[in-house]
């Protein structure tokens, strides 16, 4: 499947950000700006490497060495470019040792730094790589920046400071953390929106899915990545998870555990495909949890995995919808037409993989295999893999996009699910939110200014 996705991108979309597998041409969205930055190449590199697809890895290496240039007049998403490009380049560097990946990651990070020039230091959502001018998404509450965006820079930026010896990256993300720590949190929850001019929350919406998700993930992973030295991050994670459990996690009438969203003063009994990553996160955070609740969090991870599997199993295609409800007799099923699509997302498979690593319960491989077969049957087209618009329809139509995260995450997690645990052991590697593995930093002898935890 990886070969099919790569070969078609190579043939029809090379250098473009993504592939349109039916039209057989390049594809892009506004997150990558208007330049051909080869997002699929950068995102896929470490998967190719891990799978032993050496010729393909070499093709990617050569394109990056010769063509990847960030001096372009293009306005990109700081978050997306960080998780896919900086994360992808750093992982490729750590795995292969090729200097060019590190050099490109540092060049790109330099281009993102102007985004932090706001009155509060909370970065803009978008930055022009040439002019350095930043701004926020028009749709975000009252000019706000997004929690899952400015809160998902920590891992990559700490690695950049570690690799370069320049504390600038580290200081930027620690400043964000300090600011968040000082703020009041309604019910102990972090709202999704924060205004970078005023430093005040926007609308009080809270989500462990879109707009919130990877902020929580990065608190836990900052601790893991620091060899468990960054106890401040662990405490923030524990506090956040306690509030989430109290206010957002419920059981449906049919006994399915779900994570809802806090909106306009009440709990929306709806869960997104994106939220399904949390099963894996709870399992990953079980060890080291407060009050020795490891068993509890592993169980919670298993319950979320089960619910998300049900969201797949209750469809015609055996692929999960974008969002599903637990309301009015509906259980783990999408109600609105515009929530019935599957765009090759990884989160459910990601959770299967973490649960497999921590329990070795064969059902997770079984569920992963079901998903593999469904993707291969319904998303494979002759020009690559495409998302589908309605997982409840027996004759689905395609969205004609092969997302770069399909190669970075979905196929990587599937491959790892069927590999031995000594391939990228979780004691040594921490996966960024785009599934790019970064090594645990044993920083005892390294000086990073600003935080004694890193001395
Ligand atoms: C990926 O880019 C990352 O996993 C991100 O954190 C959330 N969304 C997509 C995949 O669905």
UniProtKB/TrEMBL annotation:
Cell location: Endomembrane system
Membrane topology field: Single-pass type II membrane protein
Gene Ontology BP terms: carbohydrate metabolic process
EC number: 3.2.1.-
Catalysed transformations (reactions): N(4)-(alpha-D-Man-(1->2)-alpha-D-Man-(1->2)-alpha-D-Man-(1->3)-[alpha-D-Man-(1->3)-[alpha-D-Man-(1->2)-alpha-D-Man-(1->6)]-alpha-D-Man-(1->6)]-beta-D-Man-(1->4)-beta-D-GlcNAc-(1->4)-beta-D-GlcNAc)-L-asparaginyl-[protein] (N-glucan mannose isomer 8A1,2,3B1,3) + 3 H2O = N(4)-(alpha-D-Man-(1->3)-[alpha-D-Man-(1->3)-[alpha-D-Man-(1->6)]-alpha-D-Man-(1->6)]-beta-D-Man-(1->4)-beta-D-GlcNAc-(1->4)-beta-D-GlcNAc)-L-asparaginyl-[protein] (N-glucan mannose isomer 5A1,2) + 3 beta-D-mannose; N(4)-(alpha-D-Man-(1->2)-alpha-D-Man-(1->2)-alpha-D-Man-(1->3)-[alpha-D-Man-(1->2)-alpha-D-Man-(1->3)-[alpha-D-Man-(1->2)-alpha-D-Man-(1->6)]-alpha-D-Man-(1->6)]-beta-D-Man-(1->4)-beta-D-GlcNAc-(1->4)-beta-D-GlcNAc)-L-asparaginyl-[protein] (N-glucan mannose isomer 9A1,2,3B1,2,3) + 4 H2O = N(4)-(alpha-D-Man-(1->3)-[alpha-D-Man-(1->3)-[alpha-D-Man-(1->6)]-alpha-D-Man-(1->6)]-beta-D-Man-(1->4)-beta-D-GlcNAc-(1->4)-beta-D-GlcNAc)-L-asparaginyl-[protein] (N-glucan mannose isomer 5A1,2) + 4 beta-D-mannose
Binding locations of Ca(2+): 433
Cofactors (names): Ca(2+)
Main location: membrane
Pathway(s) the chain acts in: Protein modification; protein glycosylation
Class of this enzyme: hydrolase
Annotated S-S bridges: 276-308
Annotated GO CC locations: endoplasmic reticulum; extracellular exosome; Golgi membrane
Active-site residue numbers: 80 (proton donor), 213, 322 (proton donor), 347
Gene Ontology molecular function: any one: calcium ion binding
Protein keywords: Calcium, Disulfide bond, Glycosidase, Hydrolase, Membrane, Metal-binding, Signal-anchor, Transmembrane
One Pfam family hit: Glyco_hydro_47
Family of the protein in this entry: Belongs to the glycosyl hydrolase 47 family.
Stated role: Involved in the maturation of Asn-linked oligosaccharides. Progressively trim alpha-1,2-linked mannose residues from Man(9)GlcNAc(2) to produce Man(5)GlcNAc(2).
Protein's recorded name: alpha-1,2-Mannosidase
Top-level taxonomy: Eukaryota, Metazoa, Chordata, Craniata, Vertebrata
Name of the coding gene: Man1a2
């Amino acid at each position: 499947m990886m070969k099919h996705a790569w070969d078609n991108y190579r043939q029809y979309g090379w250098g473009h950000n993504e592939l349109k597998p039916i039209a057989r041409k390049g594809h892009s969205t506004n997150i990558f700006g208007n330049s051909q930055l080869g997002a699929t190449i950068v995102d896929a590199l470490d998967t190719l490497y891990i799978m032993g697809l050496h010729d393909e890895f070499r093709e990617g290496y050569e394109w990056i060495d010769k063509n990847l240039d960030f001096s372009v007049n293009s306005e990109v998403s700081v978050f997306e470019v960080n998780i896919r490009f900086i994360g992808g380049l750093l992982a490729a560097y750590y795995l292969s040792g090729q200097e060019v990946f590190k050099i490109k990651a540092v060049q790109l990070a330099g281009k993102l730094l102007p985004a932090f020039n706001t009155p509060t230091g909370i970065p803009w959502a978008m930055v022009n790589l040439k002019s350095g001018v930043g701004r926020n998404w028009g749709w975000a509450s009252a000019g706000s920046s997004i929690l899952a965006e400015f809160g998902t820079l920590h891992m990559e930026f700490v690695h950049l400071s570690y690799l370069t010896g320049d504390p600038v990256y580290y200081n930027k993300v620690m400043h964000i953390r300090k600011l968040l720590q000082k703020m009041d949190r309604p019910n102990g929850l972090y709202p999704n929106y924060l205004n970078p001019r005023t430093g005040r929350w926007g609308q009080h919406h809270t989500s462990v899915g879109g707009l919130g998700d990877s902020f929580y993930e990065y608190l836990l992973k900052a601790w893991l990545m620091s060899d468990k030295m960054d106890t401040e991050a662990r405490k923030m994670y524990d506090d956040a998870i306690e509030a989430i459990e109290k206010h957002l996690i419920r059981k449906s009438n049919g006994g399915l555990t779900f994570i809802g969203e806090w909106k306009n003063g009440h709990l929306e009994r709806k869960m997104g495909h994106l939220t399904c990553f949390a099963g894996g996160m709870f399992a990953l955070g079980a060890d080291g949890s407060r009050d020795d609740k490891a068993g509890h969090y592993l169980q919670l991870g298993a319950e979320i995995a089960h619910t998300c599997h049900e969201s797949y199993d209750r469809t015609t295609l055996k692929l999960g919808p974008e969002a599903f409800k637990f309301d009015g007799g509906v259980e783990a099923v999408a109600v609105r037409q515009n929530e019935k699509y599957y765009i090759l997302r990884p989160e459910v498979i990601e959770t299967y993989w973490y649960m497999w690593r921590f329990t070795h319960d064969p059902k997770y491989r079984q569920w992963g295999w079901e998903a593999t077969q469904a993707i291969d049957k319904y998303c494979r087209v002759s020009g690559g893999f495409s998302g589908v618009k309605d997982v409840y329809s027996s004759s689905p139509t395609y969205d004609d996009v092969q997302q770069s995260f399909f190669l970075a995450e979905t196929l990587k997690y599937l491959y790892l699910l069927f590999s031995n645990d000594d391939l990228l052991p979780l004691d040594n590697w921490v996966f960024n939110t785009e599934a790019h593995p970064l090594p645990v930093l044993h920083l005892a002898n390294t000086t990073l200014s600003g935080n004694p935890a890193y001395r």
